[in-house]
Structure formats: structure tokens, C-alpha cells
Predict the structure.
Amino acid sequence: MYEILDSRQLTENIVELKILAPWVAKKCLPGQFVIIRTSDDGERIPLTISDYDRTEKSVSIVVQVVGASSHKLAKLKKGDFIHDFVGPLGNPSEIILKFDEFKDKNMLFVAGGVDTAPVYPQVKWLFENGNKADVIVGARNKDLLILTEEMQKVANQLYICTDDGSFGFGGRVTEMINSLVKLGKKYDLCVAIGPVIMMKFVSLLTKTLSIPTIVSMNPIMVDGTGMCGACRVTVGGEVKFACVDGPEFDGHLVDFDEAMKRQTLYKTFEGRAYLKEKEGDSHHGGCGFCGGEND
């Protein structure tokens, strides 16, 4: 059992939980995720780590209420307990694993909505290691913005965009990128995390601007083990699974159209059956011997 040290309401439907998890806090790095179950028969929920404190032995996650399991998780308060908290899973961010290659680079992070949460620990880690990055945060409106104060403290420059113009720059993140480049900003690398459609158009733009781009495909993950087939994605013509091979990939090589089509199909029983039949052995990312392929 894992104790909740703090619960903070970020927006009407988004909650941040700080959880006492000594072993995860000791090992985790930005870009990794955990799998949570609220009870012994609960659904497995993969969530990206939004912050951690090795001294406090805590790990923070951000939960957006979209279904019954996330609603139950978001209702938990300080002093409550979570049944399972497994991690760290997935690969740490490439900019951390290969920091010597990136430490002198001009970096731009683009975050969409709730996915500001996985962007924040990466920007914070860079700040603590002497590299301040520019950050663009986009949301449909000001009420959906999260962690802006925290991001302001660690970013070189923070640019906030809202689709409806209710706060900051009125427009999409791609328009903000274009504006910055026209003003003379030069970036050696872009890291984009957000809705798949956002990452697609950011990657299309950065390709024309010759800015190498990393995207995180964590938004398409479901079970976090590679066995459900939900996060199957084609990268440079090769089949990958976000939860075991990623979640980060070269944004200029990801087949976003296929990923978005699969997301839609995966929401129905018929769609999942169709994908399993169509993709055969490549539908799952596991070993093929543990029985998951029969699910």
C-alpha cells in the first residue's frame, strides 16, 4: 500500500497526487511512468511521472478524469492509500540519457494540455543541470492550463497559448513556434508532448524548419506492458510499442495518421478484434508466451 502525501486540484477535472513511494523515487528519471491500481481488482492505469523528490521519497502524478478508474483515483485525499504503484517503467527521456550531446543545445519544449505534466520534470531536470529551455504550453482555454507557475520557475522563457485567446497568445502552438522562429529564435531540438494530433502538426512544422523533434507517445498507452496492443505505432517503417520501446520517438518518423486511426478503432470491441486479426503477431509487444496474446 502506498500513502498519498498530498492531493491538489489543478483544474475541475485534473488532480495532482503526491505519493510516498521510496523505491520508485530513488530510481525514476523524467520521461518514465508508473502503473497504478487503486485496489487489488482495479484497472491498471499507466501515468507519467510529473515530479519526484528523492529526499522526501515521493513521486507525483497528474490524473485527468476520463473514466471510472481515473475518477476513483482523483477522489483520493491526503492519508488515503493506493494498492499498487509500480515503476519506474519505460525509458527515461533521451535528453537525459544523452545529456552530453544535448547540454549545449537550444531546446524548445511544446506541451499540450494535461501533458504539461510530463514536460515539467524534463525542463526542471535541465534547469537543475545548467540548461534552461524555452517552453510553449497550449490549451483550449485558460481553465485547462496546469503547472504554469512551476514551469515559469524552471523555463528560460514560457509562452502560453490558448485556442480561444482567453490567456496568453491566442492561437495554436504551431503558430507560436512560427512566430518565435520569425523573431529570430533558433532551436537545435524540439520536444513535443500532447494530444497525437498536436504532435503530428508540430512535427510537420519542425520538419519544414529543419528542427529535430522528439515526441512522447505516452497518450496512446493503455496497459503499460506491451500486451494490449493499444500503443502499437509505426516509426520509420518499423513496428514499435510506446510502453516498452518508448515512449519517446523521432517525431519526423512516426506515422501519426496510423496512430490516430488505431486510437479510434481501439475504443470498441469490434475495433480491437479487427486490429488483432489484421496485425497478427505484431499486435502485441510482449514475449508471445505468457498468454497476453490471447486476451
About this structure: The longest strand covers residues 2-11. Residues 286-295 have pLDDT under 50 and may be disordered.
